[in-house]
Structures are given as structure tokens and as C-alpha cells.
Records
---
Amino acid sequence: MTELSPRDPTPLLPIDWAYAAAPESREIVTIAERYGLFIGGEWVEPRAGASFTTCSPRDEEPLAEIAQAGAADVAAAVDAARAAFPGWSGLAGSERAKYLFRIARLLQERAREFAVLESLNGGKPIKESRDVDLPLAAAHFFYHAGWADKLEYAFPNRSPRPLGVVGQIIPWNFPLLMLAWKLAPALAAGNTAVLKPAETTPLTALAFCELLLQAELPAGVVNIITGDGATGAALVEAAVDKIAFTGSTEVGKEIQRRLAGSGTRLTLELGGKAANIVFDDAALDQAVEGIVNGIYFNQGHVCCAGSRLLVQESIAEAAVEKLKQRMASLRVGDPLDKNTDVGAINSRAQLTKIEQLVAAGSAEGADIYQPPCRLPEKGYWFAPTVFTNVAQSHRIAREEIFGPVLAVLTFRTPQEAVEKANNTPYGLSAGVWTEKGSRILWMAERLRAGVVWANTFNRFDPASPFGGYKESGFGREGGRHGLEPYLAFESA
Ligand code: NAI
Ligand code: MG
């Protein structure tokens, strides 16, 4: 008999186990060492030769060298878009639609690859990029393909025509989805575009250029230029007919000042500080799921995040208790792991901003709670956080944190809920949780917010217009309302 080998001392299951890792393979994506600018249907080198490194926020791994476009590059991109405009706007709408359908189908075909790239470069959980960002991005192209040959029906007796060249500047929280929100209506309406992705998340936009080549979109119809805020500012200065911007209120205001009186059209989709309002008759378990989804989805990097919980006083204690229990089950970690609920913070700068505001919350006297969770050593991380005992005057109740941080306030009457919800310079979204249909309508009428969700949160559909009031910006994206800012009309 052969001697039995001594038993392996390591236990079959780790003592301190949560979930076995289920990482999505990154082998599916090919990332080039460096990228040029996509101008006139070709890759070109930036004229000044400048570049920067894009990293993964999960471990700070450098992923690629990205071109920093200067003013001359921006001008070249605008020229290419201008040259492509007569051809593109002259196509029958049904022909433009074919390209948009093709782009939508290619996005579906390559969805897994784009989802992995999005999570790798931006830090969001693969579960979200796979189930939200990619399907919605494709849906936006499908939806707008449907409008391309029906503009006369969308705007009867108004003779809609395209504006010309549009400049589009997008943020890092939904890189590919914001690209889709911008490009799909612009192209459906017959415009040509120059788009600048955010400096921390350029990779899906650059992969999208390859997809455009695959779709054989005519050269110059879409031009993608990478770079930081200086590149964005140069695009605002360039000879474009419209600027569409999504990002911070601060930069939005700067762009508005710059374009005032110039005749260049402008739409702005800026920050928010949404109230998620829970009444005492709401289904509490569902409401807690909605609260969690409202603030911890995409690490709270969401302009319409439900960052202020307004809960009716009589159920506040029970709601917060349930919320804390639910928070303890959120899995924070590797964005590429299919189990992950909360991924990495997008950048060092954003992490610093979150840390500063959270420190201000404690300093001003609110009570902080974070569930026990072990954060990875490398990369940018922040634990899901909730503050109770918050006053309306606290910075954490007024300023957009853009991180996984919830501020809880209470109210007694519906009137008080409305007043507190509207007590903000922003007005992008709101949530109402109640069994009573009449109360939903009563609240929706009074809330100064572009979107009001009832018994749900963070729902998006390409047919539904999205946009803000007050310092959340102006103009709508999605639906017929979202097409309108990409069109000029015959004046009566
Ligand atoms: P940001 O507004 O500076 O960046 C957004 C985009 O604008 C990026 O593509 C950037 O390169 C570009 N940009 C920056 N400065 C510009 C300028 N002067 N002219 C033209 N384009 C310019 O936002 P940032 O600094 O990344 O984030 C700061 C805060 O802004 C966040 O903490 C968050 O509160 C808010 N934010 C809101 C977003 C939203 O979806 N509403 C998205 C991103 C940030
Ligand atoms: Mg900035």
C-alpha cells in the first residue's frame, strides 16, 4: 500500500469567505499601446505630439497612451465634419437610418468586449456595463434610427433641417452611453459631429471609432478627439453650430458664458442632488432596494443619483435600519468580477473630492455609517456610506458628492417633503415611494425636477426625455424632445 500523503492543511473553503471570484476575462479586449485622433475617418497623430496615459482605476494599471488634441487638431476635426456635412445631410433619412441600425447591431454583437473595456477603464461593475450601459447604448441608436426618416412627422409643418457641425463633450461616468446619447440624435437629424470623451475614460470611444469603420460610416461624419478640459475648451471655441455638454455645473456655466451672444446653440446636462422621497405607506423592502440603486449604482457617479433620502419621520428608524442591513451585503471590489455591486472610484481626483466632502459631513455633526468591508489595497475605492442626523444646511446635503454617499433627512407632511426636495440649486431628478397614486401625481406636479420616478429609480429609456431645471442645465436628451435641439426650423 502506498503511503498517503499528509493532508493539505489549507481548508477547502477559506474561513473568511464571501463569494468565490467570478472574473470576466479581459482577453476579449485588445487595447493598442497608443491611440491617435479619429478625424475624417482615419487615425491621425496629434499635431503637437502630446499624449497622456489612461489607467484602470481598479489597480492603477496603465492601459494605453492617449493623444492630447490641441486647437489645431480640433480645427481639423471640425473641418472634416464640415466637409462631410453636405453628403450626410443630403442622404435620404432612410439611408442615414441604415447606418444607425448598423451601428446599433454592431454594438450588440460586440457588447461583451465593450462592457469589459468600459469596466476596465472606468471602474464600474461589469454587471452594470453589461446589463445597463451596453444595452442602452445600442437602444439609443436603434431608437434614433427610427426617427431619421420621420423628422417631418416628429415636427409637422415646421420643416426640420440639421444644424450643421455639432461639438459634443461628455463625462466619465457613462462613457459609451453618453456617446450614444449625443451621437445618435445628432446623426439621425443629419448633423455631423466632433465628440470629445472625458480624459479618464477614452477607451470605449476609441473602440467605437473602429466600430464606425466596420459600419462604413462615411468619413468625417463622426470625429473623435481625445484630451482634457483644454481640448474641450478649444472645441467650444471652434467653428461649430452647436455644443452639447454633459459634466459639472462649474464647466457648464463657463461654456454658457463663453457662448453667450455667439449664436452657437447650447444644451447643458449638469449636476444634481436628487431627493428620493419615501412615504410611510411605501413598500419598505422595495423602497430600500430603490434607495440602494439610487445612490450606490455606478459608485454614485450619477448626475441623477438619489443622493438625499427624504424619509417620513414615522418610519425613518425602521427604514435606516433596513438600509444598513442591505448595505452590509453590497460587495465592493474588482469591477470585472460578476459578483461586484460597487466598483472602483473613477479617478484619484474624484476619490479626493468624495473624501473631503465626507470629512465635512462628520465635521458638521452628521453621523456616519459604513458597513464593514475590506477594500482592495491598490486602486481607488470608497465604501458605501450613509449619513444620518443631517441638516439641510450641511455641505453633504447641498453639494453634489458624485460618490457612494447618501444623506438622510426626514419630513412629516407631503408639503414639507416638497419644500425640502426643492431646496437645492439643482433640479434633475427625484423619486417618490408611496402606495397612493394620487400622491405620486401631487408630488410630481410640485417637484422641480426634470425626471420624477415613482416606486422605482434610475430607469432610462431612449424614448423618454431626460434633462434638468435650474443649475442642472437645460435641453432634453432622448425622445422627440431630445431630437429638437439638433434641428433648425423654418421660422413662421
Ligand atoms: P468636468 O465638467 O470638468 O468634465 C466633464 C467633461 O468636460 C470632460 O470631458 C472634460 O474634459 C470636459 N471639460 C473640462 N473642462 C472644460 C472646459 N473648460 N471646457 C470644455 N470642456 C471641459 O467634470 P470633472 O472635473 O470630471 O468632475 C467634477 C465634478 O463634476 C464631479 O465630481 C461631479 O460632481 C460633476 N460631474 C457631473 C457629471 C454629470 O453627469 N452631470 C459628469 C461628470 C462630473
Ligand atoms: Mg473638471
Note: Residues 169-171, 173, 196, 198-199, 228-229, 232-233, 236, 246-248, 251, 254-255, 269-271, 303, 350, 353, 400, 402 surround NAI (ligand 1) (CB under 6 Å).
---
Amino acid sequence: MARIVVLTGAGISAESGIRTFRAADGLWEDHRIEDVATPEGYAADPALVHAFYDERRRAAAAAEPNAAHIALADLEARRPGDVLIVTQNIDDLHERAGSMRVSHIHGELGSALCEACGERMPWHGDLAGGPPCPVCGARALRPDVVWFGEAVYGLDDIFDAVALCEQFWVIGTSGAVTPAASLVAVAAEAGARTALLNLEAYEDLRLFDDVVLGPATATVPEWVA
Ligand code: BJW
């Protein structure tokens, strides 16, 4: 179990050049959420959804981890076994910064899921055009990401880890999406010290012991120092 559990969202990757979802210039400005991030949207127009994720896979591959990702990886290196990152992000910038324990609860761009055989597999190319599944041959590969209405990955283990941690930090997420947004309540209820490091404050900050506002590349290195 980890003493420190860190929940991260799109804001931690923003300064690596990866767009967030709900900002004025965010991803949802260009796309209706229900068209690209629901099973129904995918069934209606798979080509649109593949184009959306193929472009994001290329953008993530071209991005580099920033000082916030690196500070968290350095913390884990200083305190082996004490840090668990629970990320809503589908990029791999935490891993590329050197973090070892990362749980991608909303899936990963670097993975594909075969809807025919159920296999999850590393995938680094485009999915547009319907490449065959290397396992079963069906042309049924989709992005291995969690859309609205689908179950997030690893939730039971994460609830257990959060209920047992000493510190729970939330970095760069709007807190608009459950179940990730409800983890702070679990941590607070269990007696962990809670912190929010975000560009903007939440309307309701009652569950946070500490609130540090600012860009993650400035706040996170200072916070973990
Ligand atoms: C900075 C910064 C800087 C910027 N430094 N900070 C009614 C119908 C159906 C479902 C529901 C419903 N009501 C509720 C639900 C549940 C639903 C939900 O939460 N909906 C709400 C929107 C209302 N949740 C789900 O459906 C989840 N599943 C579920 O509940 O399953 C139940 C179930 C159980 C058992 C069996 C079956 C089902 C699944 C949610 C999946 C979310 N998926 C997405 C897409 C993933 C793939 C992809 O990336 O495309 O996840 S949506 C999108 O939002 C993505 C993100 O991970 C997630 C959160 O976004 P995030 O990271 O918070 O980004 P932003 O943009 O919102 O915020 C960025 C923040 O950073 C801002 O605050 C900035 O200020 C800050 N910031 N720059 C520091 N430099």
C-alpha cells in the first residue's frame, strides 16, 4: 500500500502541450463529448472516434514530460513503495518521467481493445482503417479508453489504496467526472491529509486540507520538495 496517493488529470499534462477537456480552448470545444467519448458515439461513427484518438495518440507521442511529472517521479525514487499515481490521463507522460506505479483508470492511448475477443494489447499506430486484431484477426479494435457509462479500470484496488493512504493529492483535474472525483471524500473520511494542486479552485473546497493554486510545473516541484 502507498502512503501517498496522487490523483492526476489533464491539467498536469497541459504544460506538455496536451489539451485539457473543459478549458475554453479544450478538446470538448471541438467535439461533442457524446460523439467521441461514449460507446454510442463510437457505434454511430467509428471513423470520427478513431480520427480523434489517432490524433491524440500522435500528439501524446510528440509531447515530453514536464517538471510536474518529473517531480512526482523523483518523489517516488526518493520514497520507494510510498507513492501511487492514479491518473485519469491516457498519455504515458508519468511513465516517461520515470514513475513506476501508475494506474490508468481511464485507459491508455498506447493500448487497443478488441471488441471481438476482449484482448487488450499494446498499440502505438493508428486505429483508423480497421487494422485486424493480432490475436483473433477480427477488424474490431477500439481505443482502450474508458468512455462515459463504462466501468473504470482497477477501481476496487484504488478505493482500497485511498482508504489506507496517509496523504491524498489531487493535481490538475476539474473534479467533474466520477468515480475519480469521489476519491477525495474516501480519503478525507479515512483520515488522510488531502491537498488540491490546480490552476483554478473548486466551488467546494471543504474536503481539502491544503489548496495550492497555480500551474502544475510551478506548484508540484515545490510541493514535493
Ligand atoms: C491545470 C493546468 C496546469 C489546466 N496546472 N492545473 C449520467 C449518465 C451516464 C453516466 C453518468 C451520469 N451521471 C454521472 C455519470 C457518471 C459519469 C460522470 O462522471 N459523468 C459526469 C460528466 C456527470 N462517469 C462515468 O460514466 C464513469 N464510469 C462510471 O461511472 O461507470 C459506472 C459503471 C460501473 C460498473 C459497470 C459499468 C459502469 C466513466 C468516466 C469516463 C471518463 N472518460 C473521459 C474520456 C477518457 C478517454 C479520453 O481521454 O478521451 O475521461 S471524459 C474526460 O474527463 C477524460 C478525463 O480523464 C476526464 C476528467 O477530465 P480532467 O482530467 O479533470 O480534465 P478537465 O479538462 O476537466 O480539467 C482540467 C483541470 O486542470 C482544470 O480544473 C484546470 O483548471 C486544470 N489545469 N491547466 C494545473 N497547467
Note: The mean pLDDT is 97.
---
Amino acid sequence: GYYNHREALPVRRFIGGKVPLGLKRKGLRIVVTGGAGFVGSHLVDRLLARGDSVIVVDNFFTGKKENVMHHFGNPNFELIRHDVVEPLLLEVDQIYHLACPASPVHYKFNPVKTIKTNVVGTLNMLGLAKRVGARFLLTSTSEVYGDPLQHPQVETYWGNVNPIGVRSCYDEGKRTAETLTMDYHRGAHVEVRIARIFNTYGPRMCIDDGRVVSNFVAQALRKEPMTVYGDGKQTRSFQYVSDLVEGLMRLMEGEHVGPFNLGNPGEFTMLELAKVVQETIDPNARIEFRPNTEDDPHKRKPDITKAKELLGWEPKVSLRHGLPLMVSDFRKRIFGDQSTSDA
Ligand code: NAD
Ligand code: UDP
Ligand code: UDP
């Protein structure tokens, strides 16, 4: 189905400029694709709190109604079940385009669908942005750097990506999404923003989505061994979700197209991460080694100089401070509310 919201005035042209006499600055109308997912739902919370109107577009592949249910009944909130691979008509001022599975387990589940979501889905949302003159933000990924030969990764690095591997549907899909975004910017003068997000964790992550932080936390809580893939010496840099949301909003509201790395430069091996989880949840939590997955990047750490300088942004929540916030959410969801009195 097509959705049409032609009634309201475009208000974007008033941002920063003079609001004509007699017209109060209205909130913006913002679409968040993938807004029922982990990152998207936290972004939606912040946008609604700021006074904007938010339309979430989600096909619920990995997202859940529960993540946004607390906004049902809010007249500034709408939820549309829609697959971005199909065209969509809306009248909005800004588009945060997040729709895409993010966990390797999910994006490998149907790789062709992942590519269609990244390519056709992004094309549709850019076509929408062009038609209504909306500003468009793409959530790209550190995976565009592949298994990087430069460390830490700077935005000017072109990456080391396998085009025919099992991760390619995601890596190459996001690279193409970035290309489309820049081509709509250059060719059709769409206002665009590109964020390259590094590993992010926090409340509302799918408990069984296979990503390392959610796996270790759920395993330690359930008294199962934490599964370390390979030798556990590969590194990642983990960002708490509120830091990411702040970065995305600053990027959208700022003047710069990007791409910008948004991540926490604190780098951990998987064995070090397991140790932090032990300290946070259970000092006796065990570790079990498993064979690693194909094409697993060996190292990853963002250089965030550009975001610091141009967006005035840097992460504030360290892994040791962020992890307990996620653990209490996981405790509630795994054991129910009763066992949270000690959390
Ligand atoms: P998520 O899986 O929780 O959220 C993705 C959302 O998109 C889900 O609600 C899902 O149902 C929806 N979706 C997927 N395909 C869709 C389609 N075809 N049409 C409509 N909706 C669709 O993942 P997340 O961690 O919240 O990731 C959000 C975005 O951030 C993704 O684009 C991801 O690539 C990017 N990102 C995330 C991380 C991270 O560590 N979380 C890192 C890099 C990039
Ligand atoms: N599109 C959309 N909503 C809109 C405008 C366009 O979903 O409001 C889709 C459209 O169906 C097309 C894509 O975006 O598949 C690209 O649109 P564009 O106008 O750039 O290209 P064209 O339609 O000329 O191929
Ligand atoms: N990993 C692990 N145990 C798990 C899940 C993942 O050791 O249970 C490792 C994985 O091999 C990778 C890192 O953790 O080196 C991050 O994996 P994740 O799937 O979270 O994200 P990626 O950065 O690979 O997209």
C-alpha cells in the first residue's frame, strides 16, 4: 500500500532561518526506516522527546513492536509495516534510513534480500527524499572497510572488502548504498548525510541475534559458557547506543555530508570483552572456544577525529559503564521482572 501525507506544510525551510510571523516553529516530520529495531527505537525516543513527529517504517524482520509500543497513542507517532524494497509515498522533512539487518546471523540468513534492502531500499528512500526535498541520512557501517589494512580506520580509507564472500551482501550492499547516496547528492542535489557506524550495544538488542556483546551477556546470565570464536584475539570497539544516537542527530542537523565514523575508539579483544562481562555479571562465567566464521575482520577501531572536529561529537559512555545498563535490560527480558531487584 501507498501512504500519502500531503496535508502538512513543509517546515524544513524554517530551520535556522526566520520563521514567518504568526507561524510557530512546528516540529519536523521525520521518517525512521528500521525504527522498530535496536538503534532505530532509541533514535525515535529522542526525536519524539524533542517534539518532532515520527513515522516508523519497518517490516519487522528483526525489529519488534515492543521496542516502540510505549509511543502508541502519541499523536506525533505513527508505525507503518512496510518493506523498503517497495516504493513508498510520504511527505516528510527528514529521512533517517536505518532499515537493514545488522547482525551477521540475520544478514546472512537471506543474503539476496539483504542486498535488495541495501540497494533497492536505499534507492526508494533516496527517490522519496528527492521528490519531497527531504534531508536523507544513511546508516552505513564500519564493514565498508572490510578486513582493514589500515588501523585505526579513517574515513579516507577505501577498505579491503571481499566482493564474493559470505559477508559481501552486507559490506558491498552498504558500499553501494553509499554510492547511491552520493550520486543522488551530486546528480539530484538531495541533501544527504552518511554515518559509518562501528559496533554498537545497549538495551533492546535482540537477545539471540548472534552479535558478540548480546551473546556473551545472555550466555553469562543463563550460566552458559561464553562462546569465543577463533583465538579471541580479534578486536572490536564497542559504542553505547545513546552515544550513537547523539552522533546521528548531530550529523543530521549539521552542515557536513560525511562520511563520518561514529564509534567508540576503546578497542577490546574478544577475550578482554569476555573478562569485562565476567566482572559485570559473574566472575565464574566460563569461556568456550568455537571455530571462527569466514572473513571475520581481524581488527576494528574508529578514528573519530573528523566527527570530533566537524560535529563536536565524541562518545561519553565507556564499555564498563554501558554494559551494566544493557545487562539489567537483558535480565528483565530473560528472567522477567522479579529478578531485577538486585540489578
Ligand atoms: P536491527 O536489526 O535491530 O534493526 C534493523 C531494523 O530494520 C529492524 O527493525 C528490521 O525489522 C528493519 N528492516 C530490515 N529490513 C527491512 C526492510 N527491507 N524494510 C523495512 N524494514 C527493514 O539493527 P540495528 O543494530 O538497529 O541497526 C540499524 C542500522 O544501523 C542498520 O542499517 C545497520 O546496518 C546499521 N549499523 C548498526 C551497527 C550496530 O552495531 N548496531 C553497526 C553498523 C551499522
Ligand atoms: N520512490 C519512492 N517514493 C517516492 C519517490 C520515488 O519510493 O516518493 C522510488 C521510485 O519508485 C523509484 C526510486 O524511488 O523506484 C527512485 O526514484 P527516482 O525518482 O529517483 O527515479 P525513477 O523513478 O525515475 O527511476
Ligand atoms: N564473536 C565471538 N563470539 C560470539 C559472537 C561473535 O567471539 O558469540 C566474535 C566474532 O567472531 C567477531 C566479533 O566477535 O570477531 C564481533 O562479531 P559481531 O557478530 O558482534 O559483529 P561484527 O563486528 O563481526 O559485525
Note: The first strand starts at residue 29 and ends at 33.
---
Amino acid sequence: MPKVLVSDPIDQAGIDILSQVAQVDVQTKLSPDELANIIGDYDALMIRSGTKVTQAVIDAGQNLKIIGRAGVGVDNVDVPAATRRGIVVVNSPEGNTIAAAEHALAMMLSLSRYIPVADQSVKAGEWNRKAFTGVEVYKKTLGVVGLGKIGSHVATVARALGMKLLAYDPFISADRAEKLGCRLVELDLLFREADYITLHLPKTPETANLINAKTLATMKPTTRIINCARGGIIDEVALADALSKDVIAGAALDVYAEEPLGPDSPLRSLDRKAILTPHLGASTEEAQINVATDVAEQIRDVLLGLPAKSA
Ligand code: NAD
Ligand code: MLT
């Protein structure tokens, strides 16, 4: 019987599918060395974002046929190294779209109404209504950077909230943007005009530090930024500096250049202007069942000798 290693927590639905055709071992929190030491015994590896599948892991995985990422981003897998060895890498491109979009919308509304700090204040025994006067999103302009699956759903819901929509995406037609109620514009205009900026694009060499001291300086002092896409698209030191100097009004972040976020990150000392969540975009019961099922089915098929849809 083939063997599958599951090295990050995944939903039981995925384990049940894999168990139909393989021996499934769940071992989470392995160090890179521990993973490299045991991976040689396995035909398949199933991960979320926690496991880093490096060249060393791939070299040690002499029996590996497939790596399954229960989620969208395969940036924690050395895909070129896997491809050179003929190991297929698969993911779940759509399983957590709604979860991530809803998290971005929740962040936007929480930031506007100071919900996390107001909650802490009431629980601390206070009753301070004046301190938490927020702002409405109705009739405000939302700039969506990256109008793919998640960005499109965010745009659709934001439109229903009465927001005006700008979008920047170099790979999307003006026609597609218009169907979603968005005006497709250049990035500098979106940065200048948006009251809220929400990021839904991949991190690539071109998008690294897209939001930096220079671009932050072009935004309005009332602008609020939401990043539920990937860490590293925002220069975190520049963002912390801009927030502390009132260059912009707020930021809600789910993803960070280094995860877990370091204890000394300047983001941790920001006040009510920042909301930080620990990469929870895909953390809904529904999304975790979707991604575990999608990826487990692909691993099962490859172990049965059927063709794979690679990431
Ligand atoms: P997608 O591929 O459907 O959409 C990404 C869009 O970004 C595409 O339309 C693409 O044309 C656009 N794009 C590419 N380069 C760009 C650039 N330089 N400027 C502007 N747009 C650009 O992907 P998706 O499923 O919508 O995911 C979006 C992001 O969210 C990804 O980075 C993904 O890894 C991340 N994500 C995070 C979580 C989370 O837990 N926080 C969950 C799911 C996805
Ligand atoms: C993804 O790429 O799917 C998300 O970042 C969520 C996750 O890592 O589980």
C-alpha cells in the first residue's frame, strides 16, 4: 500500500479520502531536518502553508510522486525542484476563495468600526462609546488590486455595500472589470483615490513591496489598507511608520513577510489603527473541507495511476 505523509493540520475529510488507497501518517510540527529524514518512506506529501518543501526535502523524497498543497499558494514548495524530479505539485485553486474574500471584508468593516479594540475595552470593564466613533464604507471608494477569484468576490460584495469600485489588474480586461462594477485604472490613480485598498494578487518579484514608503505617501490620510493576499507585498516597516505618522488611517493584515510574525515586528506595537490576524483567510470549516477534499482526491488519483492536474 502506498504511504502518504500529512505534515500540516488538514480536515478529516481529506484523511478519509486518502485512507481509501494509502496508509496515512499525520505528523505535524516536524522540523525541516525531521521532515527530510522521514520523507524517503513516502509516496505523497500533503501540506498547508506551515511545511516548507525545500530542495533538500525533495532530494530526500526518493519515492515521492506528488505533493498536495491544501490551499492556493504553492510558494512554500520549491516547484522547479519538484518538477525536475518528476514530482507533481497540486493545489486547490478555488476551495478557499469565499473564506479569504469574507475575511478581507470582515477586516475592512472591523477596521472602520474599531471592533477589536472596542471589544477589548468592554471586556476590560469600560463603557466608552465616544472613543470608538468609526467611519462608514457606504459611498466610499474601494481599490481592488488583483481582480481574480478572491478580488472579484470582494468587489461583488463591496458593491452591494454601496461602495464605488476601482480595480488594478494588468491581466484583466476592462470589460471583465466593468461587469463586476469596477473601473479599471492604473495603480498610481488607485493609490491616490481609494479610501480602502484591498490586495488580492500573488507575491512575485514584481509585486514585492508594491506598497512602500513612496506609494504610501501618495495615499490620502484617510486611506485604510487590507492585505489578505501574501506577506511581502507591503513593506511592513514603511507601513508601521506611515501609520504612526498618520500618513494613512489604518491597515488590517492577515499575512506577513515572515510567518509567524516576529515578536519584535513594529506592526505589533501599533494601536487601534492596525488589526493583525494570524493568516486566517482560509480558516473556515467550509474552506478547510473544500481544500482537503480537492487535494486528497488529486493525490488519490495519482496514487491510483490516473492523470493529475498540476498547480
Ligand atoms: P487569482 O489567481 O484568482 O487572482 C490573482 C489576480 O492577481 C489575477 O487576476 C492576476 O491577474 C492578478 N495579478 C497578478 N499580478 C498582478 C499585479 N502585478 N498587479 C495586480 N494584479 C495582479 O488568485 P486568488 O485565488 O484570488 O488569490 C489571491 C491571493 O490571495 C493570492 O496571493 C493567494 O495566495 C492569496 N490567498 C490568501 C489566503 C489567506 O489565507 N490569507 C487564502 C487564499 C488565497
Ligand atoms: C492559501 O494560499 O491557500 C492560503 O494562504 C491559505 C492557507 O495557507 O491555508
Note: The first strand starts at residue 3 and ends at 6.
